[in-house]
Design goal:
Elements (H helix, E strand, L loop, with lengths): L2 H24 L10 H23 L5 H9 L8 H22 L1 H6 L3 H6 L10 H20 L21 H14 L9 H13 L15 H20 L1
Helix pairs in contact: 1-2, 1-4, 2-8, 3-4, 3-7, 3-10, 4-9, 7-8, 7-10, 9-10
């Protein structure tokens, strides 16, 4: 599996399971309807876990343009690889959103509120205030990338041999995303990932969804610029402290 294909697959899985949990909680007549924020944040955390387990060995499982850019700023990823990773992530996000729509098609049809249906695809602020919404996305992504840059591998005390956890090694990233969602996600829905928001937002505009709401393009730059800014600041701080 090439890194490009791995990033497509990883981001597709991320959105299938992440968008899927939002659909299950928000759309009418689902078994999980109204099961709440804990279910949503847990679903997204486990979506990250699955994506990292599947694609980590092949691409590093960035599955997020902000992560790719942050790692490049920190000198831990080649800048020339960033465009192909971002393209793959966008393709994966759009594929994932389309699959969620197909799986929940009957429930989209059974849901009349357009904003509820749009929430399956992309984020929206709880209170619209562009400055503070931007701050929320910057801080959430800063925590994400700064923590990732400080992950370490355990080593045996009497040698330099690393102690691996196999697939369980993806758990720290899942717990990290879970923590961000629980603690910082209440203001903007914590996109913390430009592809996760923009790719599905584009598909929301394209797919034949009945009674759909506006795509809110005037807000869409915040879950793009915020995560990129937060990731870059995290990388710069990591470089300063190193």
């Amino acid at each position: 599996m090439t890194p490009f294909i791995a990033e497509i697959i990883g981001t597709t899985l991320l959105i299938i399971l992440g968008g899927g949990v939002v659909a299950n909680v928000e759309l009418n007549k689902t078994i999980g309807n109204n099961s709440g924020w804990i279910v949503v944040t847990t679903g997204w955390a486990l979506a990250v876990y699955v994506a990292v387990v599947v694609t980590g060995p092949f691409s590093g499982a960035h599955i997020n343009p902000a992560v790719s850019i942050g790692l490049a700023v920190a000198g831990e990823f080649a800048w020339e690889m960033v465009p192909s990773y971002v393209l793959a992530q966008m393709i994966g996000a759009m594929l994932g959103a389309t699959i969620v729509w197909l799986v929940y098609k009957n429930h989209f049809d059974a849901t009349k509120d357009g904003d509820t249906k749009k929430a399956v695809f992309c984020t929206a602020p709880a209170i619209r205030h562009r400055f503070f919404n931007l701050v929320g996305e910057i801080v959430g992504t800063f925590v994400l990338v700064f923590t990732i840059l400080n992950f370490t591998d355990a080593a045996l005390a009497d040698s330099n041999q690393l102690v691996g956890l196999g697939s369980l090694g993806a758990l720290p990233v899942a717990f990290l995303v879970w923590s961000i969602g629980l603690s910082l996600g209440g203001t903007t829905g914590y996109a913390i990932n430009p592809a996760r928001d923009l790719g599905p937002r584009i598909m929301h505009a394209i797919l034949p969804i009945k009674e759909k709401a506006s795509n809110d393009w005037s807000y869409s730059w915040i879950p793009i610029i915020g995560p990129i800014t937060g990731a870059s600041l995290a990388a710069l701080l990591a470089l300063f402290l190193s």
